[in-house]
């Protein structure tokens, strides 16, 4: 049996558990020694009340491992008193992680969490992270592996697992897709999940599942780039439902989404937008300029016979953002964002309101 699990951070806001057909959820709680996800408890309370399998994770910044573990535990310890407890996880990846390459840091963090809570945390990482941490953790920590064979939306039916887990004899979970949001399969029955979480007395019968409701979404006042961001965040559903919600803007929005995920080139995206504009989808004058946003000049250039050039696009940083999170949303890597915007130093600091070119 497998469990279908989504994982969310502040990017998804007050996410409605079950809205993408998942059985359970894993939630970002903290990062470094200061950040706390403001939407964490909203999602966590749904999992607790619905008696769904769930987990909670800390994103490693690579500072003092003991201090980061203490920050994590201080912010999630209340959940460990619930009948339906979460599995604890360390998110070990390269972005904004000063200790990347040092697998012993991950072990130090997980050992400190266990000393503080009595709970054995697992590790979320990909192939490089497996190579770094296997000698320290393969005999004690569950492995939640990150690897994407395709950036296309495959629903909940990925291909057979194609990666190596190194010294780990058992693969606990596989995050196989980030389209339209992060999705994983966990190779566990509910009882096995509860055993890892420490839910030895979890005999609460789950409440009757509510009747699924179509997502409430409007395109009013938004430009195509905002709609694309909403689509990447899972706010516009999938398939026919997405087409209905986006209406006349569907083709243009998907061109931007596919450009960000590198399924098509920027030139292909620009030409699609130009064709949609010529077909009258975006009106004229100020209305067209608003809908096309940062794409307006390049699209008008194509329509007017000019060579397609890369448009200058700007992203405005909001509270809770990280370079790696922004890069994932925009379809680029955080190193490129840092280089384009002159961001350097060990912390790669960004701040709300900052304008980033991408």
UniProtKB/TrEMBL annotation:
Residues 199-223 are annotated as: Disordered. It comes from the Bacteria. SMART domains: Cpl-7 (SM01095), Glyco_25 (SM00641), LysM (SM00257). The keyword Hydrolase applies. The keyword Hydrolase applies. Keywords: Glycosidase, Hydrolase. Residues 313-358 form the LysM domain. SUPFAM superfamilies: (Trans)glycosidases, LysM domain. InterPro entries: Cpl_7_lyso_C, GH, Glyco_hydro_25, Glyco_hydro_fam25_subgr, LysM, LysM_dom_sf. One of its GO terms (molecular function) is lysozyme activity. One of its GO terms (biological process) is cell wall macromolecule catabolic process. PANTHER family: LYSOZYME. Belongs to the glycosyl hydrolase 25 family. This is LysM peptidoglycan-binding domain-containing protein. It comes from Lactococcus allomyrinae.
């Amino acid at each position: 049996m497998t469990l279908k699990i989504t994982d969310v951070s502040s990017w998804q806001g007050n996410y409605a558990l079950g809205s993408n057909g998942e059985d359970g959820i894993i939630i970002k709680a903290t990062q470094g020694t200061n950040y706390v996800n403001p939407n964490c408890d909203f999602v966590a309370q749904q999992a607790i009340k619905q008696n769904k399998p769930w987990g909670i994770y800390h994103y490693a910044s690579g500072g003092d491992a003991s201090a980061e573990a203490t920050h994590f535990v201080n912010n999630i310890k209340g959940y460990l008193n619930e009948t339906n407890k979460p599995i604890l996880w360390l998110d070990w990846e390269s972005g904004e992680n000063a200790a990347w390459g040092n697998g012993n840091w991950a072990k130090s963090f997980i050992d400190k969490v266990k000393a503080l809570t009595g709970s054995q945390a697992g590790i979320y990482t990909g192939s490089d992270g497996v190579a770094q941490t296997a000698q320290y953790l393969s005999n004690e920590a569950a492995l939640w592996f990150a690897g994407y064979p395709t950036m296309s939306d495959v629903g909940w039916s990925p291909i057979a697992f194609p990666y190596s887990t190194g010294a780990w004899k058992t693969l606990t979970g596989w995050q196989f897709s980030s389209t339209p949001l992060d999705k994983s399969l966990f190779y566990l029955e509910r009882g096995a999940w509860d055993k890892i979480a420490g839910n030895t007395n979890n005999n609460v019968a789950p409440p009757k599942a509510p009747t699924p409701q179509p997502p409430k979404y409007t395109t009013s006042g938004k430009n195509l780039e905002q709609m694309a961001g909403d689509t990447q965040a899972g706010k516009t559903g999938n398939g026919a439902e997405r087409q209905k919600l986006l209406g006349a803007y569907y083709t243009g929005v998907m061109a931007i989404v596919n450009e960000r995920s590198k399924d098509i080139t920027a030139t292909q995206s620009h030409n699609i937008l130009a064709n949609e504009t010529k077909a009258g989808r975006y009106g004229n004058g100020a209305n067209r300029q608003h809908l096309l946003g940062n794409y307006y000049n390049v699209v008008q250039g194509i329509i007017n016979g000019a060579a397609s050039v890369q448009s200058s696009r700007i992203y405005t940083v909001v509270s809770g953002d990280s370079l790696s999170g922004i890069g994932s949303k925009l379809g680029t890597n955080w190193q490129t964002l840092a280089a384009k915007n002159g961001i350097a130093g060990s912390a790669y600091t960004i701040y709300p309101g900052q304008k980033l070119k991408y």
